[in-house]
Amino acid sequence: MEGFRTVLPVNTRKAGGLSVGNHVAMLLADLPVSERDPLRRLKKVIRVTIELKKESNQTGGAELIEDVADLTTKRLVSELYRAAMRLRTYNLIITNVPGPPVPLYMLGARMKAIYPMVPLMQNQNLGIALFSYAGGLHWGFNADWESFPDVHEFVEDLNASFTEYKKLASAHAPQVPGGEEATVQA
């Protein structure tokens, strides 16, 4: 398998913009999942996503569709998006939503975690959502059990890959005088 076609929602809202609602482009990215070396795989993913965000016209097309929706009807554009999703021109949808960096409380009880969920479209068998909250990263998986019964194995493999990347990050962390690792704030 050379590439794995993935839908990546990307925020297209202009900084300082006054408009309301979501402004999202759905980028189609061929991710190099067959690359065995994790560092080369990460570099390829970064290169592909940067090219799509900066050099492709996918985000410009989404902005044009939003402008047409503003001038006509949102229902027309919603139906076009639904029709495109039914074609299933991708294998997976992955979304990452930055959440609050500090703990939230309700009636004095601290919320410990937030697990997001991506709704599945017609003919789609897997969605992955990530949500950062209070220094943690929470993963949500939604799968069609009939078409993807091995989702538990996929999650285990993804966890192993994530552990591999955390070890790589530790090995490449900048060192400060005295031999301690520097901490990087994201």
Plain-language structure description:
The structure is a single chain. The chain has 186 residues and is an alpha/beta fold. The chain has one domain (4-147). It is 35% helix and 23% strand. The protein contains 4 helices and 7 strands, in the order ββαααβββββα. The strands form 2 sheets. Strands 2-1-3-6-7 form a 5-stranded mixed β-sheet. Strands 4-5 form a two-stranded antiparallel sheet. A hairpin with a 2-residue loop joins β4 and β5. α2 (58-71) packs antiparallel against α3. The radius of gyration is 19 Å and the shape is globular. The two termini are 33 Å apart.
- Give the neighbour order of strands across the main sheet: 2-1-3-6-7
Task: Quote the distance from N terminus to C terminus.
Answer: 33 Å
Q: Oligomeric form of this entry? A: single chain
Radius of gyration: 19 Å
Helix content: 25-40%
Q: Give the SSE order as H and E letters.
A: EEHHHEEEEEH
What structural category characterises the helix and strand content? alpha/beta
- Alpha plus pi helix count: 4
Q: What's the total number of strands? A: 7
Biggest sheet descriptor:
5 strands, mixed
Keywords:
186 residues; alpha/beta; five-stranded mixed beta sheet; two-stranded antiparallel sheet; 35% helix; disordered C terminus
Write the layout of secondary structure elements.
Elements: E1 4-11, E2 24-31, H1 38-55, H2 58-71, H3 74-86, E3 92-97, E4 105-106, E5 109-110, E6 126-133, E7 136-143, H4 151-171
Parallel strand pairs: 1-3, 3-6
Antiparallel strand pairs: 1-2, 4-5, 6-7
Helix pairs in contact: 2-3
